[in-house]
Amino acid sequence: MFCSSCLTNTSKYRLSERHSCTGRSTWWRQIRVPVELGSQQPGTRAARCAVSSTTRRFAMQVTGVRDARDGKPTSPKAFPWLQFVKYEGLGNDFILVDQRKCAWPEVDTAQAVRLCDRHRGIGADGVILLLPAISSGADFRVRIVNADGSEPEMCGNGIRCVAKYAVDVCNDSAAGPNEASTFGDGALSIETGAGYIRPRVLSDGRVCVDMGPPILDPQCVPTTLPGSRRIADVKAAVEVPLDGSTAEDIAAARLPLPPPECCGASEFVWRCTAVSMGNPHCVIFVDQKTFAWVDANLERIGPMFETHHCFPRRTNTEFIEVCGPRDLRMSVWERGAGRTMACGTGACAAVVAATISGRIPSQGAGASGDPVSADACVVHLPGGDLEIYWSPENRHVYMTGPANFVYRGECLLESSSL
Predict the structure, then answer these.
(1) Is 350 helix (H, G, I), strand (E, B) or coil?
(2) pLDDT in tens, 290-304
(3) In the CATH scheme, what is the code of domain 83-206+405-412?
(4) Taking a C-beta distance cutoff of 8 angstroms, is the pair 67, 38 a contact?
(5) Catalytic residues
């Protein structure tokens, strides 16, 4: 192990001991980087892990390759180190790459998949690229790449992470004067594949996102499921049998059924409510016993719902247990990511589906129109809780939840691989 400040061999020190070149209680540990450096001297690449004694949160900085003569980093052209930050929202984790001002070319799909690999890369549910805005109405735009290389139109947890990152950068004392004044009020406008999304970082660190109105027209979700119930001026697909109405349809779908002890003696049918929050969602309501069975078998049955023929662009699937009039429990299989700890757009779709199917009452107006103080529904996910409010006034869905910095670092991108 080598100190990243003076490159002194610190192998004789325990992990909890201090190196003599620093007066702070800092832990040093070398990070192995999967790249051959040839003639570089031992200790010319190192990593520093600073652990706060109060928060116990790691902040990692993997340093660039240093020239053996003067200790200065080599140019990105010689060794293309890509700077990134990692954020998480309720355990849904993302690699954020701010490419608005950097000299690196835009990360491609193959590189993003490699970065998301939890065994050979950094590990994440997706990569989010921050890019210059195309239109003047947005602060910047984002491109989202799932762990499997697919690109969703939107990601609720990812947008919260992006908003928190943008405001964190502005509040950083080292930020430039232009950046520090851009998002001072915590409100942003972000271009996504689903249009403009407007998040706001609250004083308590949580992020409230205006997700816009839900899309209920089956053709726009999109799904081939027929409309079954008129909601306003749209005939929405509400609790439609997902296996079809004929024996041939049921046989073609081949969706597994829960055991009799879960669904009882009556014939069980998967019923779907189709909602789009800029990306498609298949919301299925189940009772407590069936929810437990689904959660235990999600890796097996999730892909069958994701690729169901009724959703031509695949779909996210949420299994929902209604625990109370403002209380939902959710297990999710995300399109392109599989089982995740949380899904923001899925939580929004679940509340909309529960409302239009009559499983929970409509939500009331918030104080002075503020969605944060409104009659929110709490959605319990494996990673924590989200507050979802479907406004009766403008019909927009508002999502409020946490987003947290995990660490920052650099990695080597070479020929579409780490």
Answers:
(1) helix
(2) 999 999 999 999 999
(3) 3.10.310.10
(4) no
(5) 155, 343
